[in-house]
Each structure stands twice: as structure tokens, then as C-alpha cells.
């Protein structure tokens, strides 16, 4: 997370001080790397498994087909 923060600060400074296209691209590259590093730290937020999920889809399909 510290590396991501350092990359984010460097990328922000490069984007703010960009005087040519190469500095802008390098700043965007640093910002993209920092977002990638920061996303690896967070765990996946997944919902619990719902066993009747397919049945809900079938009910929706059957009701929509019935009213057609």
C-alpha cells in the first residue's frame, strides 16, 4: 500500500507539472500502476452463495413469458 501511495503521488506530480506529452503519459502510467497496486490489497467482496438463484431466474422468465 505504501508503494501504491508513492506511485500515486509521483503520478499526480507528473500530471500536474506536465509540459509535454511524454510527461503526461508517464504520469498516467504511474497513476495506473498505483491503482493496480492498491486494488491488490483489498479483499474480494463477494456475496454469500444463494442456492435458489436459478429458480428466481426461472420464475422471472416464466412470468414474463406468461404475460406476453
Descriptive notes:
The longest helix has 21 residues, at about 20-40. With about 70 residues, the chain is an all-alpha fold. The protein contains three helices and no strands. It has one domain (about 1-65). The N and C termini lie far apart (about 55 Å). The model has no long low-confidence stretch (mean pLDDT about 80). The relative contact order is 0.14.
Put the structure in a nutshell.
By secondary structure, the protein is mostly helical. It contains three helices and no strands. This is Major facilitator superfamily (MFS) profile domain-containing protein.
The run of helices and strands is: HHH
Task: List the uncertain runs.
Answer: none
The coarse silhouette is elongated
How far apart are the first and last residues' alpha carbons, in Å? 53 Å
| Coarse structural class | mainly alpha
Descriptive key words:
75% helix; mainly alpha; 68 residues
Draw up the topology in text.
Elements: H1 2-16, H2 21-41, H3 53-67
Helix pairs in contact: 1-2
Family: Belongs to the major facilitator superfamily. Sugar transporter (TC 2.A.1.1) family.
Transmembrane segments: 6-26
Main location: membrane
Amino acid at each position: 500500500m505504501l508503494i501504491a501511495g508513492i506511485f500515486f503521488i509521483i503520478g499526480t506530480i507528473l500530471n500536474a507539472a506536465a509540459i509535454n506529452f511524454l510527461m503526461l503519459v508517464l504520469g498516467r502510467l504511474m497513476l495506473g500502476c498505483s491503482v493496480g497496486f492498491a486494488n491488490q490489497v483489498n479483499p474480494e467482496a463477494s456475496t454469500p452463495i444463494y442456492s435458489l438463484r436459478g429458480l428466481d431466474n426461472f420464475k422471472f422468465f416464466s412470468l414474463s413469458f406468461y404475460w406476453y
